[in-house]
C-alpha cells in the first residue's frame, strides 16, 4: 500500500513523516520497497504474528508494510506549475491513497501561510489544485471521446460520465463526492483522477488536545468536510508521534499508557488506510518465518498466492487453509488437521482476514 502525505507548508507533514521513517520497518525485509529519502516504510502492527511465532518457534517475524510518500511542496497554483507544481501532482498520481495533513493546532511560533489557522480553507486550497488538474484531464478526454462518439456509439456512457464529473469539478468539488454505479467506478479508475483517490484527513492537533481527548472546533470542521467525501479522519499530534517513533516497543506501550492512549496515531492511520482501501491480511507461518501479506478484500486464493510469488499463482493447485483462531485453539497445524479444521481450498476460494495458508503449487 502506498500512501502520499500532502498538505500546506507548516502543518506538520515533515514532523509526521519523520515519525514514519523513525518508526521505520527493517528495510532488509522489504526489498521491493523503493529506496528514496521521500519514502518511509512502516510495518503494519499485527498481534497475530507474535502468537504464530510462539506456536511455530519461528526464527523471523515479517509484518506487512506500508509505504508513505512525502509529497511536500504543494502551494496555491501548483496545478498551473507553480512551485514544484506538476512534479508534485504526478507524485500524487502514483499513490493509492492521499493522507492530507491539516493543521488543527494554534501556535504563535509557527506561521501559517495564509496568516491564520483555518482547516477548511486549507483543505479547499489543496483540493482545488487537485481539482484543477483533474479538469484538464477530463477536458482532454472529453474532447477525444466526443470526436470518436460520431463513429462509435459505445462511447456514449463515457461521454455522459465525463460530463457529469466535469460539472462536479467545476463546482469546486472533488470527484470523490460523485455517486457512481460499479461500472462507472471502474471507468473513473481508468481516468486516474487525483480528486477521486481515497483520502484520509489527518487532523494535527496540539499535545494538550490529544491528551485531553477533547475535539476542538478545528477538528470538528475537518470531520464535517470529510463526511461529504466519505473520507476518514484520524486525529494525531505529529510532535507526539515523533517522540513515540523513537521508543522501543515496551517503552512505547508505557509512554502511551502514561498519556492515556491505547494506540499511536500512526497505528490508527495505518488502520484507516486498510479500511479505506478495503485491505486485509492473510498469514503464512513456519519455523523459518511468520509473515503477513496484504491483499484486497475479495481476493481469491491463486491471486493471494501470487503476492508471495508469481510462480505460486501460475502453478496454483490448492490452499491448505486454517482460520487463525482455530489454529490457536488447537495449538498446532497437526492437531487442527486431526480435528478437520484445515480446509483444502481451490482456485475460487475467497481468502479471509487472518487465514493461515500453505499454498500447494506446481513449479
Ligand atoms: P510541514 O511544513 O508541513 O512539513 O510542517 P513541519 O512538520 O515542518 O512543522 C512546522 C512546524 O510546526 C514545526 O515547527 C513543528 O515543530 C510544528 N509542529 C508540527 N506538528 C505540531 C504539533 O502537533 N503541535 C505543535 N505545537 N507544533 C507542531
Automatic annotation (TrEMBL):
Domain of life: Bacteria
OBG-type G domain sequence ranges: 1-256
Domain TGS: start-end pairs: 278-361
GO-annotated molecular function: ATP binding; ATP hydrolysis activity; GTP binding; metal ion binding; ribosomal large subunit binding
Binding site residues for ATP: 10-15
Required cofactor names: Mg(2+)
A matching Pfam family: MMR_HSR1
Signal peptide location: none
Keyword list, A-Z: ATP-binding, Magnesium, Metal-binding, Nucleotide-binding
Any one GO cellular component localisation term in the record: cytoplasm
Annotated HAMAP family: YchF_OLA1_ATPase (MF_00944)
NCBIfam families: redox-regulated ATPase YchF (TIGR00092)
Main function: ATPase that binds to both the 70S ribosome and the 50S ribosomal subunit in a nucleotide-independent manner.
Sequence similarity: Belongs to the TRAFAC class OBG-HflX-like GTPase superfamily. OBG GTPase family. YchF/OLA1 subfamily.
Protein name in the entry: Ribosome-binding ATPase YchF
Organism of derivation: Anaeromicrobium sediminis
Gene name of this polypeptide: ychF
Amino acid at each position: 500500500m502506498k500512501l502520499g502525505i500532502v498538505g500546506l507548508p507548516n502543518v506538520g507533514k515533515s514532523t509526521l513523516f519523520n515519525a514514519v521513517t523513525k518508526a521505520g520497518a527493517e528495510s532488509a525485509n522489504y526489498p521491493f520497497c523503493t529506496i528514496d529519502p521521500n519514502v518511509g516504510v512502516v510495518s503494519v502492527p499485527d498481534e497475530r504474528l507474535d502468537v504464530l511465532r510462539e506456536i511455530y518457534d519461528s526464527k523471523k517475524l515479517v509484518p506487512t508494510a506500508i509505504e508513505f510518500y512525502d509529497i511536500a511542496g504543494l502551494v496555491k497554483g501548483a496545478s498551473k506549475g507553480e512551485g514544484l507544481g506538476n512534479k508534485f501532482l504526478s507524485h500524487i498520481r502514483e499513490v493509492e491513497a492521499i493522507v492530507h495533513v491539516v493543521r488543527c493546532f494554534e501556535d504563535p511560533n509557527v506561521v501559517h501561510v495564509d496568516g491564520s489557522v483555518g482547516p477548511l480553507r486549507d483543505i479547499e486550497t489543496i483540493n482545488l489544485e487537485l481539482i484543477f488538474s483533474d479538469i484538464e484531464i477530463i477536458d482532454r478526454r472529453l474532447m477525444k471521446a466526443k470526436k470518436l462518439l460520431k463513429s462509435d456509439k459505445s462511447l456514449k456512457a463515457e461521454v455522459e460520465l465525463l460530463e457529469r464529473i466535469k460539472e462536479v469539478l467545476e463546482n469546486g468539488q472533488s470527484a470523490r463526492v460523485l455517486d457512481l454505479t460499479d461500472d462507472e467506478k471502474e471507468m473513473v479508475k481508468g481516468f486516474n483522477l487525483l480528486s477521486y483517490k481515497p483520502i484520509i484527513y489527518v487532523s494535527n492537533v496540539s499535545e494538550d488536545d490529544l491528551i485531553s481527548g477533547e475535539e476542538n472546533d478545528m477538528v470538528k470542521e475537518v470531520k464535517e468536510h470529510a463526511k461529504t467525501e466519505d473520507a476518514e479522519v484520524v486525529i494525531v499530534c505529529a510532535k507526539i508521534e515523533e517522540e513515540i517513533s523513537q521508543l522501543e516497543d515496551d517503552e512505547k506501550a508505557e509512554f502511551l499508557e502514561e498519556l492515556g492512549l491505547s494506540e499511536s496515531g500512526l497505528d490508527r492511520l495505518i488502520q484507516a488506510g486498510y479500511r479505506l482501501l478495503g485491505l486485509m491480511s492473510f498469514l503464512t507461518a513456519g519455523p523459518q518465518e511468520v509473515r503477513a501479506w496484504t491483499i484486497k478484500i475479495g481476493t481469491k486464493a491463486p491471486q493471494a498466492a501470487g503476492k508471495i510469488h508469481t510462480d505460486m499463482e501460475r502453478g496454483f493447485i490448492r490452499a491448505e487453509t486454517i482460520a487463525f483462531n482455530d489454529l490457536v485453539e488447537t495449538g498446532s497445524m497437526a492437531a487442527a488437521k486431526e480435528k478437520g479444521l484445515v480446509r483444502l481450498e481451490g482456485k475460487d476460494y475467497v481468502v479471509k482476514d487472518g487465514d493461515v495458508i500453505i499454498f500447494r503449487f506446481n513449479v
